[in-house]
Specification:
Order of helices and strands: EHEHHEHEHEHEE
Shape: globular
Strand content: 15-25%
Number of helices: 6
CATH topology: Rossmann fold
Strand order of the largest sheet: 2-1-3-4-5
Radius of gyration: 15 Å
Largest sheet: 5 strands, parallel
Number of strands: 7
Structural class: alpha/beta
CATH class: Alpha Beta
Distance between the termini: 17 Å
CATH architecture: 3-Layer(aba) Sandwich
Length: 151
Amino acid sequence: MPIKIYFAGSIRGGRESADDYLALIFNLQKFGTVLTEHIANDALLANEKNLTDQQIHDRDLEWLKQCHIVVAEVTQPSLGVGYELAYSMFLNKPVLCLFNTTKGRQLSAMISGQKYFNVFKYQEIGSVINELQHYFNNFEIEQSTHNIVNK
């Protein structure tokens, strides 16, 4: 069974990191199925204009329930991503937060101070790809429960 990955990134909070999302999702697909690959789509906002906010909310929470691991690019502040991270912690999902230190922002203490989250600070996407390899090598799906367990 392939690992199901929920990728979180800012949508309405700003699309400045959309190019990074594309590279990250492309590389995450090497490790499993990315349930939210649409996050990298340039036409995302236009594509979702026919969905109500409740439909988007309910769909995304269903994907969070289905996923094994959450990977969030947290450089661009986003209320939605913060909500998804808190919900992931409530669901007891492993969470990897990625923060680009070259963008002139400071990571929220609510993320960096939460020991539940694995936070990886980076300066270039290449180093993130190496971190993803290391991160995913430490997990496997427990076949009896379909849960992710640390090796």
